[in-house]
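User: Before I run my own analysis I want an independent prediction to cross-check against. Here's the chain; please return only the structure tokens and, at the end, one sentence I can use as a sanity check.
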Amino acid sequence: MKLLAFDTSTETLSVAVSRDDTGDVKLWQYSGTGGARASTDLIPTVLNLMQQAGLQVSELDAICFGCGPGSFTGLRTACAVAQGLAFGAGVPVLPVDSLLAVAEEARFSAMADVAQVEVVALLDARMDEMYTACFAWGAGRWTTLSGDVLVRPEDFAAQNAAAVTLAGNVFTVYAQRLTAVSERLPCITALPTATAMLRLAPQLLADGKAVPADQALPSYIRDKVAKTTAERMAEKAAAT
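Assistant: Structure tokens:
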């Protein structure tokens, strides 16, 4: 199987290519600064890794992209690049939930020898909120227990008492507001990486999650990117 994967949903740009011609999987990967630079760096990085792998886009079995939730601009960038590459080459697109990629990255990096685990993935959504979802790993595959939602850190801390593992990039920025759970539950710092997406791809492809290029869409979750003046004034008044 030959796969390309990339994620620009956070401040990190992650790209990876894998090819398995004879049962020996080879991997080429890149991790660097994302954010505003992702729109200019993503395509050159993809082309560079594809060249290293000796692959043409038309040879790929699928193009995987982090569909979100995450940065609005980052998600649009990833989706547009995936669509552009896939449409011209006639290759299917595989949207991968960024929170599922977080869970897989945490499992692979810190719990590879654990047969069963429940992971709550958490990504900073800015505006004093987090994206979160819960997944279970068992029998060599992931199952979604609760889908992607947006939640305030203190509300999450008050609602989550189960003995699960937390994974994500929120444990510093919301440290004080997550104390109720972070001091009691294991916490693994993790981001949605392209290599995690490549590991997820076989299951997702087998489950029929690949789509034609024109049907690939980002998953925003939040329907707004800024607070109104009235909302900011109300919060300021409440804080005084």
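Sanity check: Helices lie at 38-53, 72-89, 98-110, 153-159, 179-182, 194-206, 229-239.
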